[in-house]
Amino acid sequence: MPQKFVGKWKGGRVKLVDGRKVWLLEKMVAGARFSVSLAVSNEEDALAELALFRRDRNAYLARVKADKAEVAPALTAAGEAPLSEDVGPRLDADSVREFLRHLTQRGRTEGYRRDARTYLSQWAEVLGGRDLRTVSLLELRRALNQWPTARKMRIITLKSFFSWLREEDRLKAAEDPTLSLKVPPAVAEKGRRAKGYSMAQVEKLYAAIGSQTVRDVLCLRAKTGMHDSEIARLAAGKGELRVVNDPSGIAGTARFLHKNGRVHILSLDSQALAAAQRLQARGRAPIRNTVRESIGYASVRIGQPPIHPSELRHSFTTWATNEGQVVRATRGGVPLDVVASVLGDQSTRTTKKFYDGTEIPPMITVPLKLHHPQDPVVMQPRLASASEM
Q: How far is Cα 76 from Cα 381, in angstroms, rounded to an integer?
């Protein structure tokens, strides 16, 4: 039976079946979507049905159930499918909440979940509560054309949502239009500003930022090249801080366990360690909008363009390549290949699998001076001499 959706009304949507308009009453009932085709011929009568539903929902549902039971045998005898509730998957508030819980279980950061909620709410406005099995690839591409920014992340978020629906067996692969929706590849920017910043720019900005938590984020990003997600996990207590106080200037380490099981350890100087400790004591990192706004206000005050925090990783790489020094712990720590040979392991892979991350890794220092009048006093790191390195 050919049909398509042609509009909306206060209680749901309107579809066209064999050239005839059918009003659908669509509401959430006990956490599930209730959808029924109304036996009306105009919107005024549909609104009357909606009023009956709102007045006594239980009685209305009981009546609909009884009507279906009475009509089904006649439809079957006539060779037609009986009426049934529309239980197709939809992009609505309930499914988004479930998906966000799924992301939490997968270890996604608060910032990632917040962005996912934003993008999915915008997709929901476009898809209008439709059964996602009826959405076409062409419709998704047309929807993307109305958004001038964040095309890549909008696609990734939608594909992730549909993938979750398939995992939950709410959607079949043949019904998923996002499988053919390609994520745009990363393209090098041409004719635009160069990525990364000078140390002078970052130092001037740091001195003008009023928020200690934002300065702590800026410090970790600029001095270690940490990802935003790593800082968020560290602040939430999902990363381990260890105080070392090595004479070389390595004050501590930050240990992360990635989703693939790989251990990642960074050595920190005293300023970066103190910043990480404050964020961890706070229990969470500031959200990205807070960081951007604080940077924006400070940039206006000092009269320089705002920086993009995500590009500080690139800046750190450039600074380290051009002016960085390697600092190694002055006590303890034997390279794993030496340990492997002593243990008799034929491959260092076995040793790395069980013991990688137990040593203090080298630290790269750059001549970046981050000072602010309100910063707590911390001991400045001492660079190792040539004989110590």
A: 82
pLDDT of amino acid 134? 87
What predicted TM-score, i.e. pTM, was given to this entire model?
0.56
Three-class DSSP category at 69 = helix
Q: Do the beta carbons of residue 129 and residue 92 sit within 8 Å? A: yes
Predicted local confidence at residue 370, as pLDDT: 92
In contact, 277 and 271? CB cutoff 8 Å: no
CA dist., res. 96 & res. 116, Å (int): 9
Strand partners, 15: 5, 22
| CA 374 – CA 112 distance, rounded (Å) | 31
- pLDDT confidence of residue 354: 45
The Cα 131–Cα 85 span in angstroms is 12
H helices of 79-227, in order, are: 93-105, 110-127, 137-144, 151-167, 199-208, 212-224
pLDDT for 346 equals 55
CA atoms of 46 and 85, how far apart (whole Å): 17
Mean pLDDT, the chain cut into blocks of 10 residues (389 residues total): 74 83 80 76 87 83 69 45 58 88 84 87 84 89 88 93 91 91 70 72 94 94 90 86 90 80 85 94 88 92 90 92 89 60 58 53 90 71 40
- For residue 248 the two structure tokens come to 């070389």
CA separation (Å) from 366 to 26, 27, 121, 319, 320?
61, 59, 43, 6, 6
In the numeric block, which tokens belong to residue 320? 């380290």
CA atoms of 98 and 120, how far apart (whole Å): 12
Task: Say how many C-beta atoms besides its own lie within 10 A of residue 255's C-beta.
Answer: 15
Main-chain dihedrals φ then ψ at residue 207, nearest 5 degrees: -65, -20
Whether 313 contacts 221, CB under 8 Å: yes
Nearest to 60 by CA among 25, 88, 109: 25
What letter does residue 282 receive in the DSSP assignment?
H
Rounded to 5 degrees, what angle do the CA atoms 155, 111, 230 make? Answer: 105
What was the pLDDT predicted at 93?
Answer: 84
CA 345 to chain centre: 40
Sequential DSSP letters for 81-116: PPP--------SHHHHHHHHHHHHHTT--HHHHHHH
